[in-house]
């Protein structure tokens, strides 16, 4: 099950966050900073799946934007990886130049 | 004057135009003030615009809670533009913690039954996002009605809402069971995907639903078959694979349905084989489907051929250059290595390759898998690889790697010498990261390998001479040098290069260890004891050793001080005992702690024979959890109570030395068979009224020895029983030396004593077991 969905830029600012399980507001910022730190510190040769606390993080980089999805153990990581790309393509179709705008979209 | 409200776009431009954070905050605060005023005035025409701006501001991180009631008003309004923004606001601003969310239940109810698709869609979306348990309960029937409506737009959303309801309120599952079967006939992939997810949730939560849905396995197989075999369809294709998301979901559901169920698994076999062989693996989508197929094959009761196919697919993944695929392959191989060990062994070289990955998560997985793959045939090669990995691996993996190597070495070591070598190498490379019992294990191992004493002491000496910082290594080396110092000085040993070591060098090294600030207190203790043992092993005079020992007699560390003072005493007053005390230690029983080693070395002046018969008994007694017949053993190995123990022996354990007190209670003969007699004698020590000591004496008047004699006892629950070690396990024939054993019984409640004895022994070539209750116990034993 997907636990959360984040879009973060390279400077560490959250551009979009959607939580599918209730997390306290102050815990959210903490969670986001940690997640961002672990994603930003990875290089290009490393794989896109990270183990983080009791989630798995699957992230993908698009220019200056990182899309991070946190899932629990039962998910297929590669399917989520494909899903992230699908999402970006949908946004691209629906709003042009998606990477530079801040989309107001309710997932 | 009423200021006309600006549009959302204008606000966004204004915010974007702000150059600094402070400016932005200013703009937003001004706008929020406007919005608040507007809400207060209650302007219905522009309310939605104000709320839209408020939502934007909320997304940037500013507080927006004052908009909650406005959401409610907007939702209730009949205009679609209002409703749209209102529902959006509800989803963003309201959550379960607020009480306001219950107020939208009624609005949602009305909207759901309205019949306009767009409005129903909005309502369903909101319900599925913020629906709390109460809301779900109220609205479940409405949602269920919508499941069967024509028109995929609403059905899709209804199905997703149903999933949310099930997650929140599992008891409502039976409402949603009947429509599922019908929904599976759907052509629209969105509805189909939602239905599969719904069925998955239902099955995961209730075994009854699981049984119910096993009937649809053939239908699922059919759907997946059409997906896989139909050609290219523009609507659903992602890099050549037809709707991989749906395929993955169906495979997952099949996995849940086929687990532990022969019949369903059989129906799926062909399909899984087809998917596994026909999926295009050049792009990630295909690999995702293939991965899910492998997981499913592993989980259900599949035929052996299919499992081998699955492992081979994983092996192929391992060779792929894409890191992600290698990662999932390693993870899944780890899961199957227990059940399909031989199949995974074939891919061992590739796994070992992955150890060298720079990526930390990959190398960690590869390490775990490699450790699981070690077996007796490949142990040498694998440990070689693992040791080279140990040298270069990141520090957080070191501890795991080191303990893994040691464990593997323990289980599969081909020769003792190889084992010792391996442990030595691990200790030298990663000494600080090994577990605490590695030292104990190594000393026990070396002690047991008689022929390797010279070899090991030499190796350890050279290792120690190079580097005294690795504490476990230093401890083992110190112990070895102490025990086998004479072998070290002897000269040649055919297994290593000849090493000429002088006595002075050895002493100097040990002193260096003692004085080094890197040494832990435990290490210092080892070194001091080693020095002491060398005093008997070395041929020169002991002045240097005496000096060191007396210096440490005033050391600040209490442990060292105590040792030094005792050793000093050994030099001065008890010099005649020194040789005997510092003899070579007998082999320590596996699982014995450091304390027992120390105790045993001090008890070494007891005859060796006395130690050995206690060992098999102590191992039984050491097992505190062995509640056979209710006996409980003493935790420490007590010294035997035979007259062979000298009066000067050091009893570290405070055991009452039982001298048969004036027998006020008559002895009781309890057992006789073929010449073997068992007698009980009772003592009630006057100091402790609840305590009863029973001495069991066994005499053998027959012609053949009684061997392997074991006596166990059981008492009722209110009593506490302690069996002490017997004097031996052989009762020699012809009335030879009787065997005795002491039982301690605590009877705080002064209940009537009942005693059951169980004897097992070998006599006349037959093994005998006798269980009997002791009758006629004298009243004085328990009153």
UniProtKB/TrEMBL annotation, chain A:
Record has NAD as a keyword: no
Protein name, UniProt field: AP complex subunit sigma
Gene3D superfamilies (UniProt xref): 3.30.450.60
Membrane topology: Peripheral membrane protein
Keywords: Membrane, Protein transport, Transport
Primary location group: membrane
Source species: Neovison vison
Assembly and binders: Adaptor protein complex 4 (AP-4) is a heterotetramer composed of two large adaptins (epsilon-type subunit AP4E1 and beta-type subunit AP4B1), a medium adaptin (mu-type subunit AP4M1) and a small adaptin (sigma-type AP4S1).
Encoding gene (name): AP4S1
rRNA-binding recorded as keyword: no
One cellular component term from this protein's GO annotations in UniProt: cytoplasm
